Amino acid sequence: MDAGSESNRWAPLVEVSHLPIADLVAGGDPALTRSVERLVRSLDDPDGVISAFSSFVQ
Amino acid sequence: MDLKQVRESGWRPVPVRDVIVKVHERCNLACTYCYVYEHADQSWRDRPSVMPADVWQATVASLTRHVVRHGLPAIRVILHGGEPLLLGAARVGELAGDLRASLEEHCAVEVGMQTNGVLLNERMMAELRRHRVRIGISVDGTRADHDRYRVTHDGRGTFDRVAAALRLLGQPENRDSYGGLLCTVAADTDPIATYDTLRAFEPPSINFLLPHANWDNPPQRPAGSPTPHGDWLVAAFDRWYADEDPPSVQLFEDVIVLLLGGKGSSEQIGLSPAALAVIETDGTIEQVDALKSAYPGAAATGLDIRRDELDALLDDPGVVARQIGRIALSDECLACPLHQVCGGGHYVHRYRAGAGFRNPSVYCDDLQRLINHVRDRVVADVSALSGKARS
Fold first, then answer.
1. A27 lies within 8 A of chain B by CB
2. CA distance B112 to chain A (A)
3. Given Cys at both, which of A5, B39, B181, B227 links B369, Cβ 3.0 to 4.6 Å?
4. Chain B partners of A24 at a C-beta cutoff of 8 Å?
5. Measured between CB atoms, does B208 come within 8 Å of chain A?
6. How many Cβ atoms sit within 10 Å of the Cβ of residue B146?
7. Residue B34: pLDDT band with limits 50, 70, 90
């Protein structure tokens, strides 16, 4: 969802489809990098289930 | 909620994957905000202090049938309370051993423990390490802040004892057991000092929790800002985001992952299904016990682990509401584009007597503040990366 598209309606999601994943992982701040890595790993878990114990979240 | 209609719409329940087992119902502390002892539900008074052997055995047997029935690749069991370390080192070791002996031939087993840390000594640590139990410890920031809220029954602070436990966990031989830190946010504290204090304990992860509150019992808000909790989290986020080697902070990472189109992993944010069950010391199967902050019996299901299978939980309307995603949200939430990220916030924070849980969060404005801020930072970073990619 592009932040500036269509009717300029604000959209919460950040558009990253134009960037290779590798660039997102290698080039961002450590916190952003970790989040992208988590996003990629979550592709393995389509349910994306909540964990009751944050230490279990990889 | 019309469960039949929900099922006919195509929704299928997600089997329980996280089981919180209340192995001890009492606690050696009297934290001022505790949802077990200090909120509306007082059911702990009528429950056994310690989970009896027959309930424990029924729990292990039930979990085993559950993982086999569903072919689960993994299950997470969190030993909880009250304070689970009140059981003593030997008994805690036995419980962890029982779980692995019964479950590991069928799936990966992650055993965790959430503790106040006050009783974590070397003997206990060795036992937990031997049984590969990951330990989460609750710390509420600086000594002064922590000791305002996390006190013994006679009002004494506990920071120094918790810090000793954390130094133990931080030793190289114990690092694999070090799950992380849980910090309940107090909006009148210094978020930078809080983050720095927690960071100094070198945790692999930190989770910041908004204190449990709802529309009938709103959070204490210091004067001066309409979004004090949001402001606090924004300041802590900025500190974390600038950290060159940051620990994982689940709430902040969840916001970023959700902004990038992924799924959240915690109850505080996002629309991921909650596949959680709580087994109380008396064998009752309940929903996540933070619900006790809403009204007495809010977490109750009428089920018992000695009699009912875990799947029976998936017919409970309260459990279903936490698995069906945006369908459970209020019209007000659905009209706001941010719901794609916040997911309405923590289910428990939406409660209002007479209206149930189909409301925005009592922290709605704070969540907006945080999400908008994180989005701005991520957009800026992505733009910078785009510039590099083009050049």
1. yes
2. 8
3. B227
4. 382, 385
5. no
6. 26
7. confident
Q: Indicate the residue of A29, A34, A51 with minimum beta-carbon distance to B248.
A: A34
How many domains, chain A? 1
Q: Would you say residue B60 has pLDDT above 70?
A: yes
* Amino acid residing at B284: T
B191-239 pLDDT, tens digit per residue, is 999 999 999 999 999 999 999 999 999 999 999 999 999 999 999 999 9
User: Beta strand pairing status for B300-304 and B284-286?
Assistant: antiparallel
Residue A30 lies in a domain: yes
Chain B residue whose CA is closest to A24: B385
Per the CB < 8 Å rule, is A54 touching B266?
yes
CB B10 within 8 A of CB B317: no
DSSP readout, A1-58? --TT-TTT---SSPP-TTS-HHHHHHHS-HHHHHHHHHHHHGGG-TT----SSGGG--
Closest partner residue to B385 (CB to CB) among A19, A35, A48 is: A19
Q: Which domain holds residue A35?
A: 17-45
C-beta separation of B256 from A35 below 8 A: yes
Predicted structure pTM score: 0.92
Give the closest of A10, A29, A42 to B381, CB-based: A29
Structure tokens given for B17: 């994957």
Q: Which domains does chain B have, with CATH numbers?
A: 3-321 (3.20.20.70)
Residue A12 in any domain: the answer is no
B256 vs A contacts (CB less than 8 Å):
31-32, 35
The one-character DSSP state at B13 is: P
Q: Which B-chain residues 24-53 have CB contacts (< 8 A) with chain A?
A: none
